[in-house]
Amino acid sequence: MPSAPLLCCSQNTTMKQWVTNQDGLDKLRLVDTPEPSQLNEGEVLVKIHCVSLNFRDTEVCMGLYGHHKTITPGSEIIPTSDCCGSVVKLGPETGDSGLKEGDRVVSIFNQTHLTGQIIEKDMASGLGLPLSGCLTQYRVFPAYGLVKVPSYLSDEEAACLPVAAVTAWMSINSFQPIGQPIRGKDKVVVLQGTGGVSIAGLQVAKALGLTTIITSSSDEKLKRAKELGADHTINYKKEPNWDEAVLELTNGRGADVVLEVSGAQTLGKSFRCVAFGGLISAIGYVSGKLDAADERINANVLALVRNVTFKGIINGPKDRFEEVLRLYESKQIQPVIDRTFEFEQADEALKYLFSGNHFGKIVVKVQ
Ligand SMILES: NC(=O)c1ccc[n+]([C@@H]2O[C@H](COP(=O)([O-])OP(=O)(O)OC[C@H]3O[C@@H](n4cnc5c(N)ncnc54)[C@H](OP(=O)(O)O)[C@@H]3O)[C@@H](O)[C@H]2O)c1
Predict the structure, then answer these.
(1) Domain range for residue 65?
(2) Which domain of life is it from (predicted)?
(3) What pLDDT score does 69 carry?
(4) Does residue 329 form part of some domain?
(5) How far is the CA of 56 from the centre of ligand 1 (A)?
(6) Is there a single domain that holds both residue 11 and residue 133?
(7) Is ligand 1 within 6 A of the CB of residue 111?
């Protein structure tokens, strides 16, 4: 028989949260709402300290995130998926979760994706659409949807990891068994742009001793990437044929792994500069979802002639999140935060992310 719910605070206590009707970055609203008042079996109440933003969050707020059929367009939702907070109260039947009150935790993106390949039903457990997200002062999570934070990370830093670090990790290591990531200077990774995923990818790749080539529209950002340890930098505005530069830097061999975050304007070039037998991880589409007229490609031919793997990436499971956290802790990696906004400025923070002017991650302090 299921355990009785646990009452965790009075119905009269209110908290603040941001909501969107998926109708534009100018239309987010900060509202008062009752604090969660009961915990069901396996649930945990978390006080949210910080949230980090992802490109996806801007799409959700603008009604442009069409991958999910499980939510009505225009319906109200709390945006964002990545948070760091502390456990305030444990519900019934959470004894074997390993969590206790006061623990600092981070959310996992697809709450039910705990191990192995993602299956379609896990997509229904994505935070910040289709499930309500984290721009709220308190939120109830299933205990299994949380990971404990290493003590060396600040709340702001920890909040940066669920989407960016896990996605970057899986983009490089999705074919590697847990505990055996790709290592070594002879392996070359290409990172596109200097947003959240790419900068996490740069940090992870450096920690594994890989050779890194990063592209950006900005020399200033490339200078910062160099300071973080990037081996080679290419300004893709000044060198539109950056694929040729990658081939030159690798003596014609090409890169072992390409983190493809841009899509329409870059995929053809990624195929042209990936090594024979290499991997292109399909992560994002910041240059648009439709084909770029000058970049039509025949992926079939491009993949087969050089034995290339073109692999879709949807974040990663909880056990791989824990794996990448172990690397972060062992190397004391600090996620790169471009700017931190106050809770009341969360809408401004989302607009700033959409401007593309940032380097690394953007954080909102909740409480
Ligand atoms: N599949 C997944 O699990 C997953 C997870 C996370 C993110 N994503 C997707 O991955 C993409 C990046 O996410 P993010 O959160 O890292 O975004 P972000 O922080 O907003 O970074 C985007 C960066 O992309 C770069 N960029 C823009 N156009 C480019 C082009 N033509 N060529 C190369 N780089 C370009 C820009 O860097 P510069 O200013 O340096 O040029 C920009 O700052 C988004 O499409 C997002 O939806 C997917």
Answers:
(1) 6-160+335-365
(2) Eukaryota
(3) 63
(4) no
(5) 10
(6) yes
(7) no
Atom of ligand 1 nearest to the CA of 282: 1
What is the count of structural domains for the chain?
2
Inside any domain, residue 50? yes
CA–CA distance, 141 with 17 (Å, rounded to integer): 16
pLDDT given at position 322: 98
> How many angstroms separate the Cα of 100 from the Cα of each of 37, 44, 83, 349?
19, 10, 18, 32
Is residue 241 domain-resident? yes
Tell me: do 183 and 276 sit in the same domain: yes
In this structure, what CATH number is given to the domain that contains residue 224? 3.40.50.720
C-beta separation of 172 from 201 below 8 A: yes
pLDDT tens profile 231-284: 999 999 999 999 999 999 999 999 999 999 999 889 999 999 999 999 999 999
The answer on 265 and 195 residing in a single domain is yes
Question: How far, rounded to the nearest angstrom, does the alpha carbon of residue 292 sit from its chain's CA centroid?
Answer: 25
> Do 150 and 177 have their domain in common?
no
Q: Distances from the Cα of 308 to the Cαs of 214, 254, 258, in angstroms?
A: 20, 11, 11
For 207, the token pair is 């920690």
Q: Are residues 171 and 140 in the same domain?
A: no
Can you tell me which residue has the tokens 């030159």?
248
Same domain, 83 and 203: no
Q: How far is the CA of 163 from the centre of ligand 1 (A)?
A: 12
Q: Do 89 and 188 have their domain in common?
A: no
Residue 112 CB–ligand 1 contact under 6 Å? no
Which portions of the chain are predicted below pLDDT 50? none
Tokens 């009075």 belong to: 10
pLDDT for residue 28? 98
Q: Is residue 138 part of a domain?
A: yes
pLDDT at residue 92 in the model: 96
Distance CA 78, CA 91 (A): 23
Cβ-Cβ contacts under 8 Å for 197 (sequence gap 6 or more): 163, 164, 167, 168, 171, 259, 261, 283, 284
Please state, in angstroms and rounded to a whole number, the distance separating the CA atoms of residues 357 and 195.
Answer: 9
The predicted structure's pLDDT at residue 293: 62
